[in-house]
């Protein structure tokens, strides 16, 4: 069994969604002074590799601790969309090679390769899934969408959600979850019979939380 780490390390000053809380860390206790090391951490709920719960965009959506844990673990189907141009849409036709493998319990992973730009301005100009494609994915029974980008919808440099986050609303509106900011997806795709696990911090009443996303397979 191989285990592949798919998570962006969390550290002070790391890139976050425009307008989200910046990440900061500081010693709260030290061995020399207190006999133990304790780190104080300040961040938003959508820091680094994280999962979105329905409550993120829906006032009556389920909160993180109300979701079935089965949503955070399942066989991974990786769609190779490495040829996408910056800011371009990913249509249902682009998912055709994996369409017959989609269904209930599956985690659909969009492999754009955009994690190579993490920490740079270029990361904001990522490919995104079209709303029609999202609706067709959900129609197969898929309830977990994972991306190696900042967002499955277009990202605006101001942090504005003027576009309405339609893919979020489709997936989360169906009671699903979205994982954002994956990395090392090529290694996940190289596994035989891969499984993706992305269990979040158990934050009560939360709209999302960081995860340690890992791929398992042979």
Description:
- The protein is of the alpha/beta class and 218 residues long.
- The protein has a nine-stranded mixed beta sheet with strand order 1-13-11-5-7-9-10-4-12.
- Helix 2 runs parallel beside helix 3.
- The protein contains four helices and 13 strands.
- The protein is globular and about 60 Å long.
- It starts with a strand and ends with a strand.
- The protein is 12% helix and 24% strand.
- The protein has helices spanning 31-34, 131-139, 166-173, 185-189, and strands at residues 2-5, 24-29, 38-42, 50-52, 73-80, 89-90, 107-111, 128-129, 144-147, 177-180, 195-197, 208-210, 214-217.
Give the strand order, joined by hyphens, for the main sheet: 1-13-11-5-7-9-10-4-12
Structural class: alpha/beta
Mean pLDDT: 96
Order of helices and strands: EEHEEEEEEHEHEHEEE
Work out the helix count.
4
- Supply Rg: 17 Å
Summarize the biggest pleated sheet: 9 strands, mixed
Q: What is the number of E strands?
A: 13
Which helices and strands appear, and what pairs or packs with what?
Elements: E1 2-5, E2 24-29, H1 31-34, E3 38-42, E4 50-52, E5 73-80, E6 89-90, E7 107-111, E8 128-129, H2 131-139, E9 144-147, H3 166-173, E10 177-180, H4 185-189, E11 195-197, E12 208-210, E13 214-217
Parallel strand pairs: 5-7, 6-8, 7-9, 9-10
Antiparallel strand pairs: 1-13, 2-3, 4-10, 4-12, 5-11, 11-13
Helix pairs in contact: 2-3
Summarize the structure.
The chain is α/β, with parallel strands linked by helices and 218 residues long. It contains four helices and 13 strands.
């Amino acid at each position: 069994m191989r285990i592949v780490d798919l998570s962006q390390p969390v550290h002070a000053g790391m890139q976050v969604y425009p307008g989200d809380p910046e990440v900061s860390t500081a010693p709260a206790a030290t061995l020399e002074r207190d006999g133990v090391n304790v780190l104080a951490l300040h961040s938003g709920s959508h820091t680094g590799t994280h999962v979105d719960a329905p409550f993120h965009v829906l006032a009556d959506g389920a909160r993180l601790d109300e979701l079935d844990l089965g949503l955070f673990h399942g066989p991974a189907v990786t769609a190779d969309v490495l040829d996408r141009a910056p800011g371009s849409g990913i249509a249902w036709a682009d998912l055709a090679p994996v369409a017959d493998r989609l269904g209930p319990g599956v985690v659909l992973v969009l492999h754009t390769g955009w994690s190579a730009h993490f920490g740079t301005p270029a990361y904001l100009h990522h490919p995104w899934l079209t709303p029609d494609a999202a609706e067709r994915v959900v129609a197969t029974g898929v309830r977990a969408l994972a991306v190696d980008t900042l967002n499955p919808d277009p990202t605006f440099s101001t942090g504005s959600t003027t576009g309405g986050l339609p893919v979020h609303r489709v997936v989360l509106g169906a009671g699903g979850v979205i994982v954002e900011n994956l990395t090392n997806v090529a290694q996940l795709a190289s596994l035989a019979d891969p499984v993706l696990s992305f269990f979040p911090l158990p934050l009560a009443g939360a709209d999302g939380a960081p995860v340690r996303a890992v791929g398992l397979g042979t």
